[in-house]
Amino acid sequence: MENIALIESFSEFKDDKLIDRVMLMAILEEVFRSTLKKRFGSDDNFDIIINPDKGDLEIWRNRVVVADGEVEDENSEISLTEARRIEPDFEVGEDVSEEVKLIDLGRRSILALRQNLISKIHEHDNTNIYKQFKDLEGELYNAEVHHIRHRAIILLDDEGNEIIMPKDKQIPSDFFRKGENVRGIIESVELKGNKPAIIMSRTSPLFLEKLFESEIPEVFDGLITVKKVVRIPGEKAKVAVDSYDDRIDPVGACVGMKGSRIHGIVRELGNENIDVINFTNNLQLYITRALSPAKITSIKIDDENKTAEVMLKPEEVSKAIGRGGHNIRLAGQLTGYEIDVYREGVEEDVELTEFSDEIEDWIIAEFSKIGLDTAKSILEQDVEDLVRRTDLEEETIADVMRILREEFE
User: Fold this and answer.
1) What secondary structure letter does DSSP report for 295?
2) Alpha-carbon dihedral of residues 292, 298, 300, 306, nearest 10 degrees?
3) Which residue, of 10, 51, 106, 127, is most buried by count of CB atoms within 10 Å of its CB?
């Protein structure tokens, strides 16, 4: 079998779109030199000529002619008699170039060469894929659901690249079917062994920011800037926006007439409740806006400890805290301040931690999770509502309320 016939069996590689001619030649030469080293002990005296466009290959072995019986290194030296079989007028001391046919390397060497070539091509492809997706980190990306597993969804893009979306990167309400197109951001790309691991996320705040860029022209054009995004995926999000052009209303432009512009984003996120607020460097005003829809009476800010004491009318407290404590938690993340809520007109109240000798710490922690950390803040709540908002049993909540009432009787 001639060299050209063997090289034609590698034709699927030379047509690979990800590999240019120069790179393919380099990979082929590396693989063949590795095979020659194993077969002859060294490749120093071999010339390899490759033409991947034609699928042609030549290997030439260069040796020096020595007198018969004086050959010390068969790889670099050739006896005079053997040299004259190649060409009758060779003399001692001359250089002999002899073509090596691939078939002469043996079937095992050829099979090993082919496997090595496949491995090198895949390694090159994986490096290219890694670089390609590394540049796409933080960007929106579409892919199709290929396989659904318990802990992750495997996606394939148009080029057949595998993308993983773990369960914790999916919005709780997400439900996907095989063949369905999914949109998310490329959150991270890592090389595991020689294979790139591409992770997609739909829970990252950056996903929401990129959706704003994609769906709202003024954000895409840079007329409106998204200053910060915080979210509890699938539940609630707050987005602070700003504009350097006083003629543009950032919130109005993002929300649209009757919510028309933001509706598509809300739907994409499984009906996640999105509050869009105007960013400002006035911290008191910023915190006031962050706690929307609650109306605040007054604010006392401690810059050193990054805390804010907010006074509200009793009927505004539940609005400030929000369902499951989501509103006050996100407002704190958005502003960077820990926000404590106080009821206007309440002269006397007691911190819930003061009852730690009668109420277990884990129960106190459950109330704190939803923004209830004083006795009266709990007594003002409905028992059924507290059962729904916490992981506490009705009997436990009733017992806590009894203890708290006794404090004020």
Assistant:
1) P
2) 0
3) 10
CATH fold group of domain 138-202: OB fold (Dihydrolipoamide Acetyltransferase, E2P) (2.40.50)
Task: Using DSSP bridges, classify how beta strands 224-232 and 195-201 pair: parallel, antiparallel or unpaired.
Answer: unpaired
* 213-254 pLDDT tens trace: 999 999 999 999 999 999 999 999 999 999 988 899 999 999
Above 80 in pLDDT, residue 409? no
* Burial label, 357 (beta-carbon count in 10 A; 0-12, 13-18, 19+): exposed
**Which of the four pLDDT bands, split at 50, 70 and 90, describes residue 271?**
very high
Residue 46 near residue 59, CB atoms below 8 Å: yes
Where do the structural domains in the chain lie, given as residue ranges? 3-131, 138-202, 204-279, 352-408
Task: Report the pLDDT value the prediction gives residue 12, as an integer from 0 to 100.
Answer: 53
Residue 243: partners with Cβ closer than 8 Å, 6 or more residues away: 218, 223, 224, 225, 249, 250, 253
Q: Global pTM?
A: 0.63
pLDDT in tens, 19-57: 556 666 777 777 778 877 877 778 888 887 776 556 567
Q: What fold characterizes domain 204-279?
A: GMP Synthetase; Chain A, domain 3 (3.30.300)
DSSP assignment string, 346-402: -----BGGGGTTTS-HHHHHHHHHTT--BHHHHHTS-HHHHHHHSS--HHHHHHHHH
Please check whether the two domains, 3-131 and 204-279, share a CATH topology. no
- φ, ψ of residue 153 in degrees (nearest 5): -115, 135
Q: Which CATH number fits domain 3-131: 1.25.40, 1.10.10, 3.40.50, 3.30.1480?
A: 3.30.1480
User: Can you list the positions of beta strands (E) in 111-208?
Assistant: 140-148, 152-156, 162-166, 181-192, 195-201
Cα 350 from Cα 348, distance rounded (Å) = 7
**388 touches 343 (CB < 8 A):** no
Is there a contact between 210 and 185 (Cβ–Cβ < 8 Å)? Answer: yes
